[in-house]
Design a protein that fits this description.
The chain is α/β, with parallel strands linked by helices and 287 residues long. The protein has one domain: Alpha-Beta Barrel (TIM Barrel), CATH 3.20.20. Helix content is 45%, strand content 13%. The protein has an eight-stranded parallel beta sheet. Strand 3, helix 4 and strand 4 form a beta-alpha-beta unit. Helix 4 runs parallel beside helix 5, helix 6 packs parallel to helix 8 and helix 9 crosses helix 10.
Length: 287
Amino acid sequence: MGRREDRSREVLDGAHARRAVALMGICNVTPDSFSDGGRYFSLDNARARVRELLAEGADLIDVGGESTRPGAAVVSAKEQLSRVLEVVSFAVELGACVSIDTASVEVAVACLDAGACVVNDVSCLRDEDLASVCASHDAVLILMHSREPMSELKAFSAYPDDAYDDVVKDVVAEWSDAAERAMARGLTPDALVMDPGLGFAKNARQSMELLSDIGTIMSSVNVPVCVGASRKSFLARDARPEDRLGASIAAAVYAYRNSVDLLRVHDVRATRQAIDVERRLIGMGVP
């Protein structure tokens, strides 16, 4: 069996050959995530969710055991592992390329040992040992831009308007600093994926500006880019998360049109259908 980094690149390349973007399906094994509120917290439901995501066409499965909604309590590594480890192992047994959504080194090590090939770090490398772990396990690190932990934020899309001089330039600069620290710990550039962190330490306007200028971000970081806009409040603040499908699809199609490499989504089937139609229309010369 090849290196895990090769495995994850194969998944991305294969997805690109099919539809030019990889789809990462979200499996929240938490009682308090903003988008599904504990629907997949039990082991049986989490396993069913993994099967569902794969059946809908997910290229990767992103398993997380700690909510990142504003004000969410910090979850210990022991508790995270009690939630996610069996789910990760189950998904690996089904042949999935699995991402573990965590900022904990202990959780990352255990899940990589269980066969995960990607670590999805929403902390922007708060703990540099996470990069060392990815390097030693030949794993890919999705490094998401953020500032303070979500537990310290007060509400969705609530962030000072003057927190950034230029949100696109500042996010790229801060992410690039974290990437340099990751590479200093032995991670190679081809094992890095950039996520601009829509909704994380950004208000609605800042998140929308980042999404609208995703092409500039991609050309600035020179690594694959992941966009996670699915069901987030900046898309439609007057709707519940489960009622933001239309806005989520619009964001995904826009990101696809701008050639992002990876989309992290809740609604895999609907997103895949929208992108497949968009791809056919583009092939027919529709502007």
